## 1
Amino acid sequence: MARVYVSAVMDATLEQAWGFLRDFGRLGEYHPFFRDAYIEDGRAADQVGCVRHFTVRDGGGFLREQLLALSDDTHRCRYRILHIDAPWTHYVAEMHLLPVTEGDRCFGEWWAEFEVPAAEEAAAVARVADTFRTFFACVDAEFGRAR
């Protein structure tokens, strides 16, 4: 089983970072790896069970992900991949945010576990880690200069 863990301190408050990252349907507006993101069937982007559909910019096909949990109290969300144009299975990821009181910033951690053929594991882990790091960098880009 492949495992990925990425953490970062972001130059945004907890409220800013959570408000930005909790929107499950907004991905295509800011993440440079993806485009054309939308929530299927007109469901709300914060409704557990909703499915996000988006296209990978580098020609990597499309993905469908289902929101499994979202908590505004603990600043966590969990989701799974329903479809990916890659030989990955049983992919589940979770993102969690915590306040950093020094400097009024935010700590984020994001992890995933999934099955992938052994020969492709290193590349898959690097790709997922880069994707998570970029999410955190997008928060910095959105709020870091405004503070």
## 2
Amino acid sequence: MASNDIGEWYRSIPQITKYWFTGSVVLPLIARFGLISPLWLILRYDFVVYNFQLWRIFTSVLYYPISGSRGFHYLLSLYFLYSYSVRLETGIFDGRPADYVFMLLFNLTCLVIIGFIAPLMLLMDPMVLSVLYIWCQLNKDTVVTFWFGSQFKAMYLPWVLLAFNLVIGDGGLFELIGILVGHLYFFLMFKYPLDFGGARLLSTPQFLYKYFPNRRGGTSGFGMSQPNRPQPEDDNRGGVHTFFLSLSLSLSLSLSLSL
């Protein structure tokens, strides 16, 4: 019965989120079991530019080391990836997969450029934070629940995660970069043309519509901010959220004890 429920849940994941989520599960597990070296998955400027190992651009977003204490952080990132990517894809991007793919590609391009300069070898965290930030800006007044039952408006969630990782994480650099990249997309796509009356500086390339055609019944008026409206946290995905949090705690404990 449980396997049927998980299978039904997996089939219900929207198309683009399913690809991203699946890659973010499969690739770290393959590397964890030694089937491929992580050195082939991280972002390296010299290998990408001089050796044309272009796959690193994408694997650096999907791969995250899950050994030891990093396992818990990885599973939390996976939880945020699923939760907020689904909400965006089924919200303002509903019926417009090409526009959602373009948003992800724009964020990825910005992160790769920053990764080459910084340099950064792993981009999963800032990519997830950039998507989470965009959803939070489009749903500023929605009340979200964080650890220990604390509740606050969605507009504060990225900064709470930044502060959280400043205290117990790796210094918050990845979260800050994700926030900056997410804000750049949000500003250029929504805030600048709508609030400042400027020209629309971002638009989805036409070739993406060929591979990801719009579906009928999607959200109309793309590129225009939707009015903030309450969105309950405990919707029909509540059981899945609980499953993820329980899985995070149990797997992180198992990984820690095995090392």
